[in-house]
Amino acid sequence: MNERRHDESGSRGGRAQRVGRRDVVLRLLASLACLPVAETAGQERRNGEDPRHAVLIVYLSRTNNTKAVATFVHERMGGTLVPLELSTPYPRDYDATVQQVAQENETGYLPPLTTRVDRIDQYGIVFLGFPTWGMQLPPPIKSFLRAHDLKGKIVIPFNTNAGYGVGSSFRTVKELCPHSTVLEGFTTRGGVERDGELLAIRGARAEAVQQDVDDWLTKVVASEPRNPR
Ligand SMILES: Cc1cc2nc3c(=O)[nH]c(=O)nc-3n(C[C@H](O)[C@H](O)[C@H](O)COP(=O)(O)O)c2cc1C
After folding, report:
1. Which residue of 36, 85, 110, 191 is most buried, as measured by CB atoms within 10 A?
2. 161, 166, 187, 201: which to mutate for ligand 1, most atoms within 8 A of CB?
3. Per-domain residue ranges of the chain
4. What are 22-73's pLDDT values in tens digits?
5. Are the C-beta atoms of residues 56 and 191 closer than 8 Å to each other?
6. 96 within ligand 1 shell (Cβ under 6 A)
7. Whose Cα sits closest to atom 27 in ligand 1?
């Protein structure tokens, strides 16, 4: 398992204010997470946490834009941050990767992952981050969803793309998580690898995206029907 655990939230500028915001978001999420998740007799509680409220952040990122957003989510929410890794990584070459992904989409091939999240039952809230690939959900995310049962959990997608939007990716997450509560996703422009622009979410742009992520987290939780305010 290549799960990386970070139980402390990180800090950037304006810590007191940001921690306050995180607490609010956590409280809101905790209240909306009251889903009928089975609590089996032997289920462990980490640090006395209610397992329905534990947060998992899984992401796929090739050029680190989605990773940047995942990091912002993690800073606000805490929990467990897990980068998805493949048994056979995609080629370094962009065009070759585009071609391979197109073929995988055509055939429905699900590339094997080395990442496996053990005891997925301990998480009630799963953030799922990915770039748009071929205007679709990247095949490795489908592999993850095939291998992990998110039934009864809150699933919250987030995305970066080269400016063409999420395509069918958010819709596909809903289709592949029919027994989860899928909340409104977050999307922002990332890099344009095709044109040699790799990591775009850095510097001033990273600050702006971090604020957008904060605003989204607050909005998406407050607008959830079970959590009127
Ligand atoms: C194989 C592949 C296909 C892509 N297809 C699209 C696309 O259809 N639409 C789009 O807006 N961006 C597309 N992109 C660009 C990425 O979505 C964008 O650069 C994103 O920010 C990359 O995220 P990452 O840095 O986390 O890997 C594609 C990139 C790759 C590698």
Report:
1. 191
2. 161
3. 12-223
4. 565 565 566 554 443 333 333 334 444 566 679 999 999 999 999 999 999 9
5. no
6. no
7. 62
Query: Residue 13, Cβ neighbours under 10 Å: how many?
Result: 8
Tell me which residue has its CA closest to atom 1 in ligand 1.
98
Q: Which residue has the tokens 């997608």?
A: 157
Is any atom of ligand 1 closer than 6 Å to the C-beta of 164? yes
> E-assigned strands of the chain?
4-5, 55-59, 80-83, 125-131, 154-161, 181-182, 186-189
Confirm if 111 and 87 have CB atoms less than 8 A apart.
yes
Mutating to test ligand 1, I would choose from 58, 65, 133 the residue with most ligand atoms within 8 A of its C-beta, which is 133
Give Rg (Cα) of the chain.
17
CA distances in angstroms from 192 to 85, 131, 161, 168, 209, listed in the order given: 21, 11, 8, 19, 17
Q: Taking a C-beta distance cutoff of 8 angstroms, is the pair 216, 25 a contact?
A: no
Residue type, 118: D
Q: Give the CATH number of domain 12-223.
A: 3.40.50.360
What is the four-CA torsion angle of 93, 98, 104, 106, rounded to 10 degrees?
-150
